[in-house]
Amino acid sequence: MNFKVLLAIISLTGLLWSFAQDTQDAQGQSPASQESADLANYLTAIRESMAKAEAAYAGSHFSVDQPLWRETLNYLDQALAAKPGDRQVLVFAIEIYEKLGWHSRSWYYGQLFLAAGYQVNARVLAPLTVAGNALGYAFYEQGEKAQALDYYQTVYQLDPENDQALLWLARIYSEVGAEDKALPLWELAASKDLEGAEYYLNLSQKSLEYNQAAVSAFEEGLALYKAGDLLKARESFSKAIEAAKEFTEAWAWLGRVNLELGSSPPAIQAWQQVLKLDPNYEGASYFLALSEEQGLWGIEASNNFQAGLKHYQEGRIKEAALAFEQAVEANSFFLDAIKWTARSYQELGNKDKALRFWQRAAELAPQDESVRYFLAELRQKPKPAPAPSPQVAAQAEPQVQREPQALAADNIMSYDEALEAYKAQDWAKAEAGFRGVLEHSPQHSGALIWLGRLYFDQKDYAKAIDIYQAALKLKPGNQDLEYFLRESKRLCSCD
Q1: pLDDT tens figures, 62-74
Q2: Which of 115, 135, 172, 473 is 20 to 30 A from 408, comparing alpha carbons?
Q3: Which H or E run includes 105?
Q4: CA 471, CA 452: separation in Å to the nearest integer?
Q5: Quick check: 152 and 134 in contact, CB under 8 A?
């Protein structure tokens, strides 16, 4: 080949290569650079599309069926196809699927994120723990406790401050009989004052004293009770007791279930056993009395009577009177219900009805002093009071006003102000007011009487007893005070 021709070919090749390089520089430096540019575009598209979807569907449930969310998922799929292990892409996947309630997908990409060794921050932790807790509960509901444990353990490892995972780990460990693992978790939960933790801590501690059969039967009973199957729950609690005769909580739940089923004799037996095992067991004395009342007067009468007491204590006297009357209709020999019906109608000013029920009470209990007192009070014709002379009226007027003024001067709430607070059901203000009056005037019988009534309404029967006893020292033989003192003692579960 001619040397000049060869030189021309070489020169042409160089020009072509130079042109190609210039073209490549114009379009991108390399395939890797192009890939990075594409990924950046996908991430921008995901971010913008997600913002639009959140704004468009704000206040509604997010769903893959919504067009803007489908568009967001499309961009996400493209980004995952382009670079599946990229940190930013995985973060978007975790977030988006959790926003859509697709817990399993969010959790899947979370595991890829963790496997890649990426550092977990708040943006990742929040959706990941929500997904893990949701999946753990779903498996628990299906009876798959081992799988549920896996999810809750992972969540708890990621976030030791996650109280939901803490409680469920403790609960499942207790349910599978791993009390050695459950106990420290319950102790931690109780130290954080989480709801129910103190109860289950106590149960976990006691479960170490009982055999696994007793604990399993008891947990089964709780689950059945929660599901509303009281008959099967009763069977499970009975099995727990058969396996551990001194299982106090099982006896208590057996008493509760029997009471709700209207089986008074076994309920009474169960609550008696609770008090035998633990005389200070909270509520046992009350439920024993309620069981005995139900057995004596019948379920319908007892339930209506308790409803009446609740209405009365909350200041709804009209509703209380109707409930008490329904209790009497269910059992016409229910003396306490009859007396409370009479009392309520008397407070409502319905003297005819009050008289009728006091008369019925007198038939059943002719020697009852309170019945005789109120009956005589209703039958007594009121005597017109003589008009006071101008001199007496003039002297009486400032005397009525003097005490509130003196109290106000000492910056103490007046008796009238305390009474108004009571009528407005501002219990704290009323209590402070009556106590302030008594500090200033210890012999103020009105403040004592209303303070006793306040404690009675609030079911603080122990304090009501103390106040009524103090009031009776000032007004010995007062039938109203004696009546409420007896009722406070009857309703109080204190010694």
Answers
A1: 998 999 999 999 9
A2: 473
A3: helix 103-115
A4: 9
A5: no
